[in-house]
Amino acid sequence: MVNQGKLRGPSIKATPLWGSAKKELAQLLTDEERAQLSVIASIARIKKGARIYAEGGDSVAVFNIITGVVKTYNVLEDKSEHINAFLFADDLFGLTEAGKYVNSARAVTDVTAYRMPTPALESKLRRNATLEFHVICKLCHELREAQRHGILLDHHSALARIALFFQLLEQHQIARELATHTIEIPMSRSDIADYVGMSPESVSRTFRTLSSRGIVSFVNHRAVKILDADRLDALVSHPVEPIRPHRRAGTR
Amino acid sequence: MVNQGKLRGPSIKATPLWGSAKKELAQLLTDEERAQLSVIASIARIKKGARIYAEGGDSVAVFNIITGVVKTYNVLEDKSEHINAFLFADDLFGLTEAGKYVNSARAVTDVTAYRMPTPALESKLRRNATLEFHVICKLCHELREAQRHGILLDHHSALARIALFFQLLEQHQIARELATHTIEIPMSRSDIADYVGMSPESVSRTFRTLSSRGIVSFVNHRAVKILDADRLDALVSHPVEPIRPHRRAGTR
DNA sequence: CGGACGCTTGATGCATTTCAATCATAGTGG
DNA sequence: CCACTATGATTGAAATGCATCAAGCGTCCG
User: Fold this and answer.
1) For B14 and C26, how far is CA from C1' in angstroms?
2) With 50 as the cut, is the pLDDT of residue B162 above it?
3) Fewer CB atoms < 10 Å away: N or C end of chain A?
4) Cβ of A159 less than 7 A from strand D
5) Contacts of A119 (CB under 8 A, 6+ apart)
6) Distance CA A61, CA A92 (A)
7) Which pLDDT belongs to residue B32?
8) For strand D, which nucleotides have at least one atom less than 7 Å from a protein CB?
């Protein structure tokens, strides 16, 4: 179960565009397609912290994660890092523009991934319409994720951003059938900061606040347990936590 | 030239994934494909301010803009609006998840667009591999745009956000061969605010600041002229405008 | 066991949000 | 055609919350 069938080849999961009303991740590739992609794919093992490719570099391959976590990011003009996305098992990365990578990618944990050379993949796609259709679905999925990230960044309150971030991590874990109420946090505090658009100090302080209010509980620095999901959700919508009940709860 | 051939059918432009090193928008569809899509497309005329579809509604069609500007947005829990993207001529919108629209769409100006019913488009895509490939390219383009939006939102300074926003508008106009140094601003101040993640008041104040510093000049409320592109660019990277030269410019 | 790095905590300043009022604009009906 | 009104834009003053600077603490790896 854990291994979902001993590496049958590249695996892409996403919520379907049409069809089922369920919002669960489904395997987009058929066994046949996975076998076909295996032909052009090699398996890469990347150590934690290693850079996989750099922004602006010539696009040579697209990657599909088997295990581990990857971040894609841009280095801004002022040398700070903006993280676009965290990628997990069954995700695809290596986005290209005019033959160059549009961001850098780095392994957040040790990573195992399929590596598919761009030219080979391109011709495979041109030949196989259904395969291509499945890739479209995955791209739509990633587009939605990017939009959700935008929504997260639009929230001004630190509590709201972190609450959304936890929900995002939770989704990923539920989707990968690790349904526990303990959320694993594979990335560092500063990676989180670079993703949610705050300073590492604020991330730390916000964690502390959530913990002291009894909304979450930190098992250790890399794992949280959600104690009060309702209040966590409430943080997303309400400007301030209604910690002082004697505050007008008017329509805004 | 302006009409690029009197409506030959749906038109999708994006920067290519592979191939040319140029970063210009290219027509992704062949004349043949455009003709094929014409068969399933009808032309919709939407008045400024009208809602085209609503978040959560059943996905019935995908749209391709001929003229005008559209915004896609989510209504957040606190009733505020988060704008995901502004869409222009040759753009595609109607993103779907499990058969439902993932955001709402509204016409920012009067809009003319091709309307393609989802089922018909789906079967067309399944049959025509190359067409599908072209759609993939467009989706990648939109994904990159969403990431750029994320970068914009990550910038904390109001000046930096507005500078990036102007650059974005400029790109769109250059890409559509309206190469002037006067940028048209088709959307309202509050739409801008909802897109860049600030209050309308701050947008207004920031406009005023840019104007009084001589970096831009407002022709009227819906058009700016960039006077000093270098200083505008500088605002993106530097925490504060070097208005006081006696401030350590150290490496941080 | 040591050192480095990441994380936490503390104090201060400042930019932006907010609230509130005025001003401009565009669309409407007399 | 013009006055009128509703809506959006601007400006002002005050307060909040985050970034920043700086120092201390913990932990992981060599």
Assistant:
1) 36
2) yes
3) N
4) yes
5) none
6) 11
7) 93
8) 8-13, 17-22, 27-28
